């Protein structure tokens, strides 16, 4: 499963399922376990796959699902070939050529009202001359999923923030990266090797990238550029002679007057949670699920809340699961206690050694460096001995939790 990570500004894999069973059963188990740790996705883009669609609806009934429109269009064109026949005044080829632009117009109509008008006209116009194709089209692309089938392929249901995902581009580019960088284009792989690559190397690289971008080291990420666009709009508004007014409704809830040209007295409700501004009721935010100018406007007036993800909470835009997961983890142990400090220090050590392992795996040793490598070997052996000492010293202060805390197998 790949999400659009707003910090990295690209698609990153968050969870994996290996299966050779193509039914919805393994998917259901996978989704239920993700749901139980707090994953609550708002949207999914999938290939046109019925088992996936069914499993998503069962676990997350209110989640909206989009099918990759390239896949949908391809299936339409295949069925057009077999189900559209010659009609009065048209040869089969002419009939097909006549329907094709109608299908494209339907898929790409961005205005919802115009879309439904087009759809009704299309069905009425062709139901007599092309009954086979229209029956197929109505059954699978209009009436299916309790009449919500159109939401899965018409672009008006695919908000701009997900446009890059509408063709599953992120998944494609992630697959390429996995094959060329991590698996080095080898074909045969043992499952345990693949799991090791995914949980060690891939996860390590993504965390490095995200933490580098979070502290704004290196280039300005794609995300930061998008933030700045809306932040600048908020700054402009604030500098006006009579800027938009803000009313604080509750501790973390604000009412913002719509910006310039506010002729009809519109106001939007902006909410924060744990000092993180999380939502606005304006059309921009509702469509893009991305911080709008109103949210930045609140931040300008109330520095106690922020729009950009705070590093310690790692709020990611458009996906709330990771916040939930971190909270759960943190509640189990008091922060900054001795256990936490030890755990942090050991994690740091582990990440440094993982880094060394990755470097040695990916590089070659220059010739004529025998002496140096003997010295390095000695250094590594000393460190390994130190770690063994550390392990026995840890025994002095650590005790196992009571049996009730063990996971049942
Ligand atoms: Zn807004």
From TrEMBL:
Presence of keyword Zinc-finger: yes
Presence of keyword Metal-binding: yes
Transmembrane segments: none
Every SWIM-type domain range: 268-303
Gene Ontology MF terms: zinc ion binding
Keywords, alphabetical: Metal-binding, Zinc, Zinc-finger
Name of protein: SWIM-type domain-containing protein
Lineage: Eukaryota, Fungi, Fungi incertae sedis, Mucoromycota, Mucoromycotina
């Amino acid at each position: 499963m790949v999400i659009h990570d707003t910090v990295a500004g690209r698609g990153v894999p968050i969870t994996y399922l290996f299966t050779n069973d193509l039914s919805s059963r393994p998917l259901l188990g996978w989704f239920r376990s993700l749901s139980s740790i707090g994953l609550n996705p708002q949207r999914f883009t999938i290939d046109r796959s019925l088992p996936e669609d069914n499993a998503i609806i069962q676990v997350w009934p209110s989640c909206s699902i989009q099918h990759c429109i390239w896949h949908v269009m391809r299936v339409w064109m295949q069925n057009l070939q077999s189900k559209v026949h010659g009609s009065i005044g048209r040869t089969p080829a002419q009939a097909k050529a006549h329907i094709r632009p109608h299908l494209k117009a339907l898929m790409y109509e961005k205005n919802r009202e115009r879309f439904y008008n087009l759809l009704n006209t299309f069905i009425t116009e062709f139901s007599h001359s092309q009954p086979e194709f229209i029956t197929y089209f109505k059954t699978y692309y209009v009436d299916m999923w309790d009449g919500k089938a159109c939401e899965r392929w018409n672009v008006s249901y695919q908000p701009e923030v997900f446009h890059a995902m509408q063709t599953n581009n992120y998944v494609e580019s992630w697959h390429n990266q996995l094959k060329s960088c991590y698996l080095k284009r080898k074909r045969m792989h043992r499952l345990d090797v693949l799991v090791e690559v995914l949980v060690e190397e891939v996860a390590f690289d993504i965390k490095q990238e995200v933490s580098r971008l979070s502290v704004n080291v290196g280039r300005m990420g794609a995300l930061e550029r998008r933030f700045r666009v809306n932040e600048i709009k908020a700054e402009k508004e604030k500098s006006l002679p009579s800027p938009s007014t803000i009313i604080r409704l509750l501790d973390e809830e604000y009412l913002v007057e719509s910006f310039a040209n506010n002729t009809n007295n519109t106001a939007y409700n902006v909410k924060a949670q744990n000092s993180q501004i999380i939502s606005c009721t304006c059309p921009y935010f509702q469509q893009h699920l991305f911080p709008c100018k109103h949210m930045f406007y609140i931040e300008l007036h109330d520095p106690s809340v922020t729009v950009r993800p705070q590093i310690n909470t790692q709020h990611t835009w458009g996906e709330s699961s990771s916040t939930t997961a971190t909270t759960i983890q943190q509640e189990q142990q008091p922060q900054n206690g001795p256990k936490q400090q030890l755990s942090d220090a050991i994690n740091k050590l582990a990440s440094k050694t993982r880094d060394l392992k990755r470097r040695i795996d990916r590089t070659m040793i220059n010739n004529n460096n025998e002496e140096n490598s003997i010295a390095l070997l000695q250094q590594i052996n000393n460190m390994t001995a130190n770690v063994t000492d550390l392990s026995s010293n840890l025994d002095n202060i650590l005790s196992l939790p009571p049996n009730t805390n063990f996971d049942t197998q």
